[in-house]
Amino acid sequence: MVQLSKEIVKETLLDKAEMSDAHCHLELFKHPLEIIEKAREEGVGIIITAGGTVEGNMGAVEMTNYDGVFATIGIDPSAIEDEDRIDDIEMQIRANPKIIGIGEIGLDVKYLDKYNLELQKGIFRRQIKIAEELGIPVVVHARGMMKHVVDIVRESSGVRFMMHFFDGTLEEAQKLAGMGHLISIPPRLTSNRKKIIKHLDIGNIVVETDSPVAGHSPSDVKETLELISKIKGIGFYDVASMVTGNLKRFFYI
Ligand SMILES: [Zn+2]
Predict the structure, then answer these.
(1) How many domains is the chain partitioned into structurally?
(2) Nearby residues for ligand 1 (ion, Cβ within 5 Å)
(3) Ligand 1 midpoint to CA 11 (Å)
């Protein structure tokens, strides 16, 4: 009988760990292909790259030519002057199966001077309606606006939401998770986020890098997954598989 040492088992499993980055901006890298290849070598097989502006959407869609890369497009709170492009966005999504969601879209306290709350809410709701018609999820950007976002999510019961770069409270995370939505954990792990990881069901967790804005590259998800593994006391391979499974089921990929 062959005796398999624990180290060998561990190494074999780690080799096969299937990691995923739920949100980044590949088009902002100077050499995106190198970034994608490096991530894949390290086990990050699925990357979702997000638009949010007219230019960002174009870049994100271009990235879907690469295997394992999917895109979300939309008009975020910084780009509301481009709201007349929302119809184009709908047509693009219908034509390209690798555009798997609308995002990032939402509300942002930073742009309130320029675009008031009602205006931001209106553009957000209009795009949620398209997601509902198309049967695809929404990737939410919610800087400093979690309460308003939770209200809008609650009124949109036919739509699935992924909360990108979640910075709400544990209570808000649990409320959203209870409605079947996903909480995306970024690389900056504050004590609040560690608390959320500890208490939130793993079935509602995905990980993201928001690179190059926050993380260095999609490969950074490994550190977050290691921490989730440690906090929850679940093996790294299992955590990676479960979190990637959550993402695949949510986006139908
Ligand atoms: Zn982002």
Answers:
(1) 1
(2) 210
(3) 33
